[in-house]
Write the structure tokens for this entry.
Amino acid sequence: MKKSTDNQTDMFYYERTLASNGVRLIAGIDEAGRGPLAGPVVVAGVVMPLDDPIAGVNDSKKLSAAKRDKLYDLIVSKALQVQVAIVDHDIIDRDNILNATKSGMLQCINGFTDVDCVLIDAVKVNAPVQTLSIIHGDALSYSIAAASIVAKVTRDRLMVQYDAQYPQYGFARHKGYGTAEHIALLKQYGPCPIHRRTFITHFVEV
């Protein structure tokens, strides 16, 4: 982990290193929703202006929902480019979650314009541009952290919409993750159309 002189994580280490080697336009990509029992996996990609950073941008998992919402608005308004790919539950069941995630990442990469390098949280993909996979990248790279916030907020808002459609499952509260509440309701009501069949076989017949 790269540290700055004030003993805080240097969130710009990778971006600064690439820039010093002549890389001009840098994107960050992350996903939200690989683990839930229901709903899509959402991949977001952003190109952020590095000379005007947004204070407080960090791994979305370390932020409150209210903080994520505020940062989401700032990120989307300041980003040079934003790409979002929503990969539905049926694609996850067909292709498996890793391949579905990679598909979403490639959708984002292919949607960028003139990007020279893409920083990706953990996952390695074969892409038409240079990529750098960074373990725990959402906590180590400003660009990936910004993407993680966009992905998380986008997916959470989708799950709130699904909650209105399937209110018996509590999607607005647990966002489709396998909480004790969700599993109990799944066993009580059986799966709904957005449940991932390959994820719920340990709990119910599908």
The first strand starts at residue 26 and ends at 32. Strands lie at 26-32, 41-47, 81-87, 117-121, 130-134.
